[in-house]
Structures are given as C-alpha cells and as structure tokens.
Write a structure and sequence with these properties.
5 helices, single chain
Length: about 110
C-alpha cells in the first residue's frame, strides 16, 4: 500500500474513532437527551461498564493511529518498531496502524 493511501485510511480511521469516542463519552445530543426511567437504573450500570470498556479500547486504537501517522511523518512507517524489518504489505493492508511485524507483535502479546 502506498503512503498516500495509508495516510488517507489512517485519517479516516481517526475521524471515525473521534466520532465513536464522542458518543461513548456522551457528547452526542441524542445520548444526553435520552429519557431513562428509574427502572433502567440496573441496566445503566452495565451500560456504563460496557461504555467504559469500549471507550478504553477506542482510545487505545486512536493512540495507535496517531502513532502510525507520526511514524509516517518521520519516515518510519512500514518498519517494525522492535526489529526494524519491513512490516509485510498484507499486514499494513489489514491494519494500517500496525507498528510491528507479525513475529514481534506475537512476542509482545505473549509477554502480556
């Protein structure tokens, strides 16, 4: 994938993540104005927990997209952040924000 296409996809992902994060934070008028009955209090707690988890995931994903854009600006996009080898084209096609080649990403995930 060429850098221009990757940048376009990353910027589109960033815009979508920003919209999603806004909704999860309750910035959307539809979310703020929603009427809830007292009977919904129990489900509000689980909704809140789920929203908090989704917000955390979206925020982490947003951070990885911003880091990919930074690598692109600095000329390191497409190179593994750990070993410096090229990240396979197919991986960047699937995950344009990927910072690591598959072996390095696998090692990182096993350590967690």
């Amino acid at each position: 994938m060429d850098v221009a296409t990757a940048r376009e996809r990353l910027e589109s992902m960033l815009a979508e993540l920003d919209r999603s994060i806004g909704v999860l934070r309750g910035d959307s008028p539809a979310v703020r104005e929603r009427d809830r009955s007292p009977a919904d209090a129990g489900s509000d707690l689980t909704d809140s927990d789920r929203n908090r988890a989704l917000l955390e995931v979206a925020t982490r994903h947003r951070r990885s997209v911003l880091e990919a854009l930074r690598r692109m600006d600095e000329g390191g996009y497409g190179l593994c952040a750990d070993c410096g080898a090229p990240v396979p084209e197919s991986r960047l096609e699937a995950r344009p924000e990927a910072a690591r080649c598959v072996p390095c990403q696998s090692r990182r995930e096993r350590r967690r």
